[in-house]
Amino acid sequence: MRAPTLVGTIDRRLLVTYRTDPEITARLLRFGFASVDGVTFARTHTRAAGALTTSRLFADLGQASDFFRRGDRGYSATDGGCLDGVQMRTTDWRVEPVEILDVSSSYFDDPDQFPPGTATVDSAVLMRDVPVTWVPLPPMAVRPRPAQSPE
Predict the structure, then answer these.
(1) Taking a C-beta distance cutoff of 8 angstroms, is the pair 86, 133 a contact?
(2) If you ran DSSP here, which 8-state letter would residue 72 be given?
(3) Coil/strand/helix, residue 15
């Protein structure tokens, strides 16, 4: 069953980027991830900022905005060997810079996934009062991971 198209307004959405050690990221993201205990979280404490000044990934707010605008699709794992997808569409894209006071993530803060120092918060931008439509995407097939041979 396909999910319906949803229309609404994003009251607030905080988009956070992390700088990671490329060797760790390449190893992890190749296989994907799932929470063992079923609990995933992200917590943030931010305040409005006049400009995006602390980022090492983006020269300015325009670059950060373009990065997130292009990342309008997301996928979630299912039990059926595929990923369910959704695309966010808007005719009124806008973000504003924020200063990160505190942030935590069950994924990026997990030392089994990212050893200390290999994932650090880079920057954040905020979407506020943006009208959106969430459109379902065709399921994406997932190939099973090859069996590892005993050593």
Answers:
(1) no
(2) -
(3) strand
Q: Contact at 8 Å (CB) between 82 and 141?
A: yes
DSSP tag of 39: -
* Number of Cβ atoms within 10 Å of the Cβ of 3: 12
Handedness of CA 145, 147, 150, 151 (dihedral sign): negative
Residue partners of 122: CB distance under 8 A and separation at least 6: 16, 17, 18, 19, 54, 55, 56, 57, 58
DSSP 76-124: EE-TTSEEEEEEEE-SS---EEEEEEEEEETTTT-TTTS-TTSEEEEEE
Residue 36: helix, strand or coil by DSSP? coil
Residue 5 near residue 135 (C-beta atoms within 8 A): yes
Profile the chain (151 residues) by mean pLDDT over runs of 10 residues. 54 56 48 49 79 90 94 83 88 89 82 88 86 89 71 59
Query: What is residue 90's predicted lDDT score, i.e. its pLDDT?
Result: 93
